[in-house]
Amino acid sequence: MDLVGSPAALRRWAVASLLGNMGIVVTGGLVRVTGSGLGCPTWPQCTPGSYVPHAAADVHAFIEFGNRMLTFVLVVIAIGTFLAAWRARDEAGRPRRLVRGLALAAALGIPAQAVIGGVSVLTGLNPWVVGLHLVPSVALIVLCVVLVHETWPVPPVAVRPLARRLVLAASAVGLLVMLLGVIVTGAGPNSGDGGAARNGLDLTSIARVHSLSVWLIVALTIALLVTTTGAGRRAVLVLFGVELVQGLIGYAQYFLALPAALVALHMLGTTLFAAALTNLWWLTRAASGDGDRHARSGERAAEGS
């Protein structure tokens, strides 16, 4: 089996990159809800003088160490993805520069994410630094979704100008929703370690602001259901379904005092929300009338695969 030299291999690597970058967000959330954020109290070593937990270390050290080791899995996936992207050619035999650029950007984002994670440990899980840790993760998910689109390839669909403006508005509000979610987390009790400071904001107040932003994007999504058809509407329906489930989990965890299982599910929902929103944004990028041209190009590329 060709590991890096075929379009099918590139697709597998692209999907693996997406799933890996989504997965590490969830495992990072598990580190936080289990209070294992300082299980390895230093970085890049786990304990002073050792890169691995010592034999007598408690379970928190192994949870945190396990999450760190997943970074190396992502590095391997990133290297495989970049090598496959480097060998990728379009139907005319030319290098696929966008695919190469996306794969390179995704690879460079992983060490950036690791450094921010290390700084969060060295600062005693400062809530603002911990929150910043999610930013490259979301960016990597966005890059990987676009990469999956480009490696399949998935042709864009033409939508009306109003629908495209609604998509752009929903994308902006979606980023705000995730940012406010990070701030809510920094105000809540799941600090990652019992002694870690919180950001000092009132949890109830900031949670209400976050909730309002969620309702706003739901309203925009409903408007998109009215203004889109075909593949565009199917992408909107996927986003709408993720929003409903994520919203239910969010309200449930708030009223149930943030049980760990629901918090972890909410982190998974965040990755799915970022992926579904990016899918809609990239799928509908074509101006009205351009969809057929892109579709024909995608069909030629698929035949060349």
Description:
- With 305 residues, the chain is an all-alpha fold.
- The protein has one domain.
- Helices cover 72% and strands 0% of the residues.
- It has 10 helices and no strands.
- The protein is flat.
- It starts with 6 loop residues before the first helix and ends with a helix.
- The C terminus is likely disordered.
* Tally of helical segments: 10
Give the strand content. Answer: under 5%
Q: Uncertain regions: pLDDT < 50 for 5+ in a row?
A: 291-305
- Give the terminus-to-terminus CA distance: 15 Å
Number of domains: 1
What letter string, H or E per element, gives the SSE order?
HHHHHHHHHH
Helix % is over 70%
Mean pLDDT: 89
Evaluate the radius of gyration: 21 Å
Count the E strands: 0
Secondary structural class: mainly alpha
Query: What is the 3D shape?
Result: flat
Sheet with the most strands? none
Write a concise keyword list for the protein shown above.
flat; disordered C terminus; 0% strand; 305 residues; 10 helices; mainly alpha
Secondary structure blueprint with pairings:
Elements: H1 7-33, H2 59-86, H3 97-122, H4 127-132, H5 134-151, H6 161-187, H7 203-227, H8 230-255, H9 260-283, H10 291-304
Helix pairs in contact: 1-2, 1-5, 1-9, 2-3, 3-5, 5-9, 6-7, 6-9, 7-8, 8-9
Summarize the structure.
The protein has 305 residues and is mainly alpha-helical.
